[in-house]
Structures are given as structure tokens and as C-alpha cells.
Amino acid sequence: MTTKLDFNLDGKVALVTGASRGIGEAIARAFAARGATVVLASRRQEALDKVAAAIEADGGRALPIACHTGQPAAIDALFARLAGDPGRLDVLVNNAATNPYFGPAVEIEEAAYDKTFEVNVKGYFLMCQQAAKMMAGQGGGSIVNLASIDGLRPAPMRVVYAMTKAAVIGMTRGLAKELGAAGVRVNAIAPGLVETRFSSVLLGDPRIQKQIRALTPLGRHAQPDEIVGAALYLASGASAYVTGSVLVVDGGATA
């Protein structure tokens, strides 16, 4: 049996969270360029509208919907709208995340701890629940969760963030086992350090940048576009027999 190597997303509907900038925006643009109707989700409608306008200017199709993925009611509203228009969902990319605290784990306040888990774990899980139900009803789909190499190898000063990303990896593997029979594939991407506003606290410190270069075989951090290939692979038919996997994209940092 041979399988056509197909990276196209023609006719697919893909929901990307955290799509107003950084990795999420890069993934959304790439999906749209390969034929998907991209549903853009993030907290701020104005920022989403700008990304949608850029996608449509390039000939793509985008539907921007403001949604705080740390709030269950907002997630319910998002999927209620998707059920009406466009009426299906083929790909979910869980990308929205937060890390409100950078410092010693013993000093983190409960509010920051709760917020990190609310968005990075509970939000991801509720999105997976809703997406899986839609996908199972239409014969299948692909869920891609953005984890982090911190979930594989926790780093100092961001221990709670690393805990949430380890949970995302566990969630991914567990859901892959439960949802495979319904044709729903669930995989994760574990990026190394990527240059985004989210990572500015790290990239703004020359000492940390020097450490990253020393510990990464490729000698540098990544750009958002360098995560796109992994997302496209896991979302498309090219990975039709891949589920429960964690694709590390870190320049060799964890090799």
C-alpha cells in the first residue's frame, strides 16, 4: 500500500489559537496559503482582524473570532459559532499559552500558578474536548498541541510553566489513545526557544542568549516560521499514520 504524500489543506477548516502573533500567526498564514479556511482565535479582536486582513490580501480565507481560551464560557461560545459556520473542523492547533511568572518556583504566587494552569492545561483540554467531538462526528481530524522542550527537560526559573507543558504532553499521548478509533489524531510539537514577544524575557538577557547558543548545536534560537513545517506535517495527510507523537523542534538542544 502506498500513501500519497500530501501537505495540502484544500477544503479543510483549521482553528489556530493564539493566532494574533508569533508562532500562531505564522502557522495560520501557512495553513491558509495551502488552502485551509483558517479560524483565528485570540483574546483581542482588533489584532485578529489585522492577521485576517493580511491572509485575505494574499488570497486566503480567514475567520477571526476573539476567544480567551482560559475561560470555559468563551470556548463554548467559540465552538457554538463554529458549529453554525463553517459547520465543521478538521484541524485544531492549540497554541495560546501564558507564563506570567519568571523566577524561583518557591516564590510564585498562587494567582500566577492558577493562571498558568488555567490557560496552558485546562484551556488546551477543553479545546481538545470540543474539537474531538466535532471531528469524531465528521469522521476524523487532527489536533496539534504546542508543548515545549521545557515539558521534556524543565529549566530553572520557569518550573510551573514546564509543569504545564509536561501536562500537555501527557494529555496529547492519552487523548491519542482514546480518540484514534474515531479517526482523530493528536500530536504535539515541542519547540525550543523561539523569538516571539512571549519569550522576550529570555531573549532580552544577553547571558541567557549566550547559554542558549552554547547548548544548541545549531547555535541560535528559532524564528516563528521555523515551527510551521512541523505543524503543517502534523495537520496534513502527510502524517496520516502519526498520532501520540511529540515532534521536537529545538535546533538540537535536547539531543
Write the layout of secondary structure elements.
Blueprint: E1 13-17, H1 22-33, E2 37-42, H2 45-57, E3 61-66, H3 72-84, E4 91-94, H4 110-137, E5 141-146, H5 159-179, E6 184-191, H6 200-203, H7 206-215, H8 225-235, E7 246-249
Parallel strand pairs: 1-2, 1-4, 2-3, 4-5, 5-6, 6-7
Helix pairs in contact: 1-8, 3-4, 4-5
Model description:
The protein has 255 residues and is of the alpha/beta class. The protein has helices at residues 22-33, 45-57, 72-84, 110-137, 159-179, 200-203, 206-215, 225-235; strands spanning 13-17, 37-42, 61-66, 91-94, 141-146, 184-191, 246-249. The chain has a seven-stranded parallel β-sheet with strand order 3-2-1-4-5-6-7, with helices on both faces. β1 (13-17), α1 and β2 (37-42) form a beta-alpha-beta unit.
Summarize the structure.
This protein is an alpha/beta fold. Helix content is 44%, strand content 15%. The chain has a seven-stranded parallel sheet, sandwiched between helices.
Summary keywords:
single chain; 255 residues; alpha/beta; seven-stranded parallel β-sheet; 15% strand
Please state the overall shape, judged from the principal axes of the Cα atoms.
Answer: globular
Kindly state the percentage of residues in helix: 40-55%
Overall pLDDT: 95
How does the helix and strand content classify structurally?
alpha/beta
Quaternary organisation of the protein chains: single chain
Rounded Rg: 17 Å
Order of helices and strands: EHEHEHEHEHEHHHE
Q: Pick out the low-confidence regions.
A: none
Question: Reading side by side through the largest sheet, how are the strands ordered?
Answer: 3-2-1-4-5-6-7
Instruction: Write down how many β-strands occur, each being a DSSP E stretch of 2 or more residues.
Output: 7
Major sheet description: 7 strands, parallel
Beta-strand fraction estimate? 15-25%
